[in-house]
Amino acid sequence: MIQDRLANLLREACLALLSDREHGDALPGDIQIETPSNPAHGDFACNVAMQLAGQIEANPRQIAQQLIDHLPADAVVERVEVAGPGFINFYLSPGWLHDGLAECLEQGENYGCSDFGAVQKVQVEFVSANPVGPIHIGNARGGPFGDTLANLLAAIGYEVEREYYLNDAPTNTQLQIFGGSVQTRYLQLLGEEVGFPEEGYHGDYVVELAQELVDEYGEKYRDVPRDTEGALLFFDLVEDKMIEQLHRDCAAMGISFDVWFSETKLHEAGLVQAQIDQLLASGAAYAKEDAVWLRTGQYGDEEDRVLVRSDGAPTYIASDVAYAADKFYTRGFDRVIYIWGPDHFGYVPRMKAALAAMGIGIERAEFIIYQTVRFLEGDEPLSLSKRRGDIVTIRELIEDIGRDAVRFFFLMRSVDAHLDFDLDLARQQSAENPVYYVQYAHTRLCSILREAESADYLGKVDGDLSLLIHPDELALLRKLADYPAEVLRAAQELAPHRLPHFARELAQAVHQFYTNCRVLDRDNPAMSRARLKLVAGSHIVLANILGLMGITAPEKM
RNA sequence: GCGCCUGUAGCUCAGUGGAUUAGAGCACCGGACUUCGGAUCCGGGUGUCGGGGGUUCGAAUCCCUCCAGGCGCGCCA
Fold first, then answer.
1. A98-115+433-549: what fold?
2. CB-CB contact of A166 with A172 (8 Å)
3. Which strand B bases fall within 7 angstroms of a protein CB?
4. What is the pLDDT of residues A321-347, one digit of tens each?
């Protein structure tokens, strides 16, 4: 990357300058090369002189000038200036852009990838919705986010695993409530006068499930007691359907998990009990009032948390402790990223505390809480609750506006921002959608490449990139050259939402180039060949970035 | 009450120490094509960056405080 090249030049200049001044220890660890927002300020800029000024007590402009004096020569650096309060601005010859295109063409689908994360194993766990209903607008947000984040981390060299944690254990109270809801609907369909519990799952799909049970089994389960065991029996009857549905919903979003991890398996293998015993033995857990508590209060949580209820049933924390042991110890992930919905917010401190109590460095775990999605109908916000039944499923949304638009919409916003989802607006905007703008740029390039195959006047001569000097060509070249740094940054900051923005800017540069620079021209084959190379490079980068987002790159629309 | 997220153009949002012009999309108004796809391009912005205070060469960005909206605070997940 050109940024690394410039940073290395500056690092050498810093070392030379600092040894002159006997300040060898003042070298900044990370030299930031940034792109000035104002093009008049050069192709790249660096603020290292101002950082140094604080440490060695000298005028930043003077330091900047001295750094420039010590800067090793480099072919692409045309001139370097001190500007403003002490910026070092680099003005490069257009050759660096042509080099960037050559690199892009050579690397193809790998362009944008790097080895930053070399051989580290990272797991991204996301969605992980309880198997009690379809994935819907409220809990789907982590899907495209996690999937794209995983793509990004893989692109910068991590060994990535995508995981779905299936809370399928009978100790999960939600399953009991859900099973009870199915049971109640079943009995109602059989004509029994039974009231539906307020805290139950009110969605129509529960009635449909119950109807399927009636169709399949008739009255066979009429006399099952309406207690916890009965509820779990009913959950067992529908469990496979629920899990299949989750698989279908994820597939519909274009997400393929490497591992569907079953909570029940943790229990069956005795791992939950083993972790509880170990925590008791190490003193991280203790017994009080018939329950077992984890000393999370000593590790930053507000208070200690219950691991085992007084009735002997383990809580979800117990499962999660065992699950974490499996992730960090058994499977040996260097980093684990948990992506959770806003309802799990209060759970982060206790999970961190639990990891600390287990002796797992908390820097190895990252918790990303995405913010609420509100579904708006007109001006009325509806709260999304599976239990209340007023849900819009992810598959309804996908059928409505398409998978590509769904992924793009969810990805566009930072996960820290609340997201208002107005279905009418989404439907209406799908024709004026930024995703089509990006995809259309891709199809236009495909169209040129198709056309070029039958253009006999092009011959076999290689395109001369130095012919590319039109402002719209240079602007497009610049976006192509910026791409690898953008991927790296989006991955390091765990910020997939940067991608749709970059993709739109790239598409804009493509459309401008397309409008103002005729590519295929029988009267100018040399220029045609050069521009075709730019078309090929742009085509590669658009396809790559759409690929990272899990959005199709169509050849025709 | 405590904690977290958010507050930037009419609307939806980027920008989270950097450059005396704070950006984009949508919407609205006007314009562009005998050649590669018009789902395109070009032009049109008087914004208390929620208010106030502070930190410094420099703040939408960091700190404090207040206001508004959202979410969370269970031996549920």
1. Isoleucyl-tRNA Synthetase; Domain 1 (1.10.730)
2. no
3. 3-7, 12-15, 18-19, 21, 23-27, 35-42, 57-58, 69-77
4. 999 999 999 999 999 999 998 888 888
